[in-house]
């Protein structure tokens, strides 16, 4: 049986009085690509951010690589194992920093010394090459910035990537390129993905299994094949499927 990469148990997140995550539990297996879908405001980003330590969870448990975490406290080992890629590559990268600086930062924090080799390798892996090393992030297109954000996430050789709508801020033609890049990295590195998207087309293309969220709760979890076969039990999933413009059968 495949080991569990990441386990969320009974997680609760509130913002003032508002319950954004209401006792959410899910297990993601090693090497799996796990999707999280649901309408706007259902709690998808809150869940990923709570896993990453960007939102505090008040109760429940998070287990990653056999270690338990609570609240928003994460240690160095956590960030060597888990990295996150955000939706907006304009907001997530400092515009007045060079690519070199952006990639150097995580390496320096984690005490790597072979930085030149790692930066060159990371730029190659995301299809940009060393010519980009001394460009400023404000000189890059959205797709190029997202490649740098992915390089920055991969440079520490994590095992798990949290992907929060990683292509929805990009043009349609660029979206496919970035999804292919992510899929290639996953295959080559044996990564585990937890990917949030409002687009069931993207999720059915990228993921092995998915959870449907509604109003801060997980409605159901099933294998992505079920999307094609229409085999899910909750009426809500059917409604979501019909409402999703991105989902195309076949
Ligand atoms: N920092 C915050 N402070 C207050 N409320 C928040 C905060 N972050 C999220 N929320 C609220 O929590 C709920 C869930 O938001 P979340 O961003 O997780 O939804 P989502 O499913 O990712 O939506 P979308 O697809 O639009 O990104 C929303 O009602 C949102 O307004």
UniProtKB/TrEMBL annotation:
<keyword id="KW-1003">Cell membrane</keyword>
<dbReference type="InterPro" id="IPR003593">
    <property type="entry name" value="AAA+_ATPase"/>
</dbReference>
<comment type="function">
    <text>Part of the ABC transporter complex GsiABCD involved in glutathione import. Responsible for energy coupling to the transport system.</text>
</comment>
<comment type="similarity">
    <text>Belongs to the ABC transporter superfamily. Glutathione importer (TC 3.A.1.5.11) family.</text>
</comment>
<dbReference type="InterPro" id="IPR027417">
    <property type="entry name" value="P-loop_NTPase"/>
</dbReference>
<dbReference type="Pfam" id="PF00005">
    <property type="entry name" value="ABC_tran"/>
</dbReference>
<keyword id="KW-0547">Nucleotide-binding</keyword>
<keyword id="KW-0813">Transport</keyword>
<keyword id="KW-0067">ATP-binding</keyword>
<keyword id="KW-1278">Translocase</keyword>
<dbReference type="GO" id="GO:0005524">
    <property type="term" value="F:ATP binding"/>
</dbReference>
<keyword id="KW-0997">Cell inner membrane</keyword>
<protein>
    <recommendedName>
        <fullName>Glutathione import ATP-binding protein GsiA</fullName>
        <ecNumber>7.4.2.10</ecNumber>
    </recommendedName>
</protein>
<dbReference type="InterPro" id="IPR017871">
    <property type="entry name" value="ABC_transporter-like_CS"/>
</dbReference>
<feature type="domain" description="ABC transporter">
    <location>
        <begin position="6"/>
        <end position="240"/>
    </location>
</feature>
<comment type="subunit">
    <text>The complex is composed of two ATP-binding proteins (GsiA), two transmembrane proteins (GsiC and GsiD) and a solute-binding protein (GsiB).</text>
</comment>
<keyword id="KW-0472">Membrane</keyword>
<dbReference type="InterPro" id="IPR050319">
    <property type="entry name" value="ABC_transp_ATP-bind"/>
</dbReference>
<dbReference type="InterPro" id="IPR003439">
    <property type="entry name" value="ABC_transporter-like_ATP-bd"/>
</dbReference>
């Amino acid at each position: 049986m495949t080991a569990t990469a990441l386990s969320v148990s009974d997680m609760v997140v509130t913002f003032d009085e508002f319950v954004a995550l209401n006792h959410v539990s899910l297990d993601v297996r090693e090497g799996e690509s796990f999707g999280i879908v649901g309408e706007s405001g259902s709690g998808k980003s809150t869940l990923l951010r709570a896993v990453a330590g960007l939102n505090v969870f008040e109760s429940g448990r998070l287990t990653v690589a056999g270690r338990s975490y609570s609240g928003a406290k994460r240690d160095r080992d956590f960030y060597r194992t888990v990295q996150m890629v955000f939706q907006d590559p304009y907001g997530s990268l400092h515009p007045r920093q060079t690519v070199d600086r952006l990639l150097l930062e995580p390496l320096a924090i984690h005490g790597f010394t072979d930085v030149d080799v790692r930066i060159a390798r990371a730029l190659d892996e995301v299809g940009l090459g060393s010519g980009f090393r001394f460009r400023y992030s404000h000189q890059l297109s959205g797709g190029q910035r997202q490649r740098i954000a992915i390089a920055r996430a991969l440079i520490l050789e994590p095992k798990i990537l949290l992907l929060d709508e990683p292509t929805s801020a990009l043009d349609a033609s660029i979206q496919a390129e970035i999804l292919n890049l992510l899929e290639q990295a996953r295959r080559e590195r044996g990564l585990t993905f937890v990917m949030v998207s409002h687009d069931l087309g993207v999720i059915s293309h990228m993921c092995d299994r998915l959870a449907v969220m509604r109003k801060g709760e997980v409605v159901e979890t099933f294998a992505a094949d079920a999307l094609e076969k229409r085999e899910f039990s909750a009426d809500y999933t059917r409604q979501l499927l019909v409402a999703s413009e991105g989902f195309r059968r076949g």
